[in-house]
Specification:
The chain has an eight-stranded parallel barrel, surrounded by four helices. Strands 9-10 form a two-stranded antiparallel sheet. Helix 1 runs parallel beside helix 6. The chain is α/β, with parallel strands linked by helices. It has a single domain, classed as Aldolase class I (TIM Barrel, Alpha-Beta Barrel), CATH 3.20.20.70. The protein contains six helices and ten strands. Strand 3, helix 3 and strand 4 form a beta-alpha-beta unit.
Length: 212
């Protein structure tokens, strides 16, 4: 059963749309991005969400102190790290983390085992930002990838029109969508609902053996 994370949340209304549509997680971006949000605003949104929703904060090269402070202030369940954080730095955080790895070539997958067997996010290496560029990579790279029980999160250019192909090829634990549920750079309620509905239908097809 592939889970859904709606990232780049900036307003309570959008967070509520995601929750109501059946999202499993929301993401707040604290790094350089047009979707950047303040800790104070993220904390207010986080406090209004049901406990069942994972709250994930996105950072680039933040210090351990900054990360620990953000987790406490915004009630984050995970920090998602898109910078040059080393495996040793990640292990030393003592807080749940998701390491993001940019995939430009198939051999970039060789980096994944360095970060243990927790959740890891794979994203496209194309675009001006460390993530959230709305671009995808070749999902065939992951068709025969053995995760060793690692929970893989797939990000990068996902939308309703391509999510079936992405899940069929990658079989991720979770998919991470942002620009694919926006109109004019703003979260779109209908697109959030339709994207999550599509993932649920794919999950149903997978359980019945129809997703080959």
């Amino acid at each position: 059963m592939t889970k859904v994370k709606v990232c780049g949340i900036q307003h309570l209304e959008a967070a509520q749309w995601a929750v109501d549509a059946g999202a499993d997680a929301v993401g707040f971006i604290f790094a350089d991005s047009r979707r950047r949000i303040t800790l104070e605003k993220a904390a207010a949104i986080s406090d209004s969400l049901p406990e069942s929703i994972l709250r994930i904060g996105v950072f680039v090269n933040a210090s351990k102190k900054e990360l620990q402070s953000a987790v406490k202030m915004a009630n984050l369940d995970y920090v998602q790290l898109h910078g040059d954080e080393s495996p040793a730095f990640c292990r030393g955080l003592n807080i749940p983390y998701i390491k993001a790895v940019s995939i430009k070539e198939k051999n970039d997958l060789d980096k994944l085992p360095e970060f243990g067997e927790e959740m890891i996010l794979v994203d496209s290496g194309k675009g001006p930002y460390r993530g959230g560029n709305g671009t995808s990579f070749d999902w065939d790279y992951l068709r025969d990838y053995h995760s060793n029980n690692r929970r893989l999160i797939l990000a990068g250019g996902l939308k309703k029109e391509n999510i079936r192909e992405a899940i069929k090829k990658v079989r991720p634990y979770m998919v991470d969508v942002s620009s694919g549920v926006e109109s004019g750079g703003i979260k779109d309620k209908e697109k959030i609902v339709e994207f999550i509905k599509e993932v649920r239908e794919i999950n149903s097809d997978s359980e019945s053996g129809e997703l080959q």
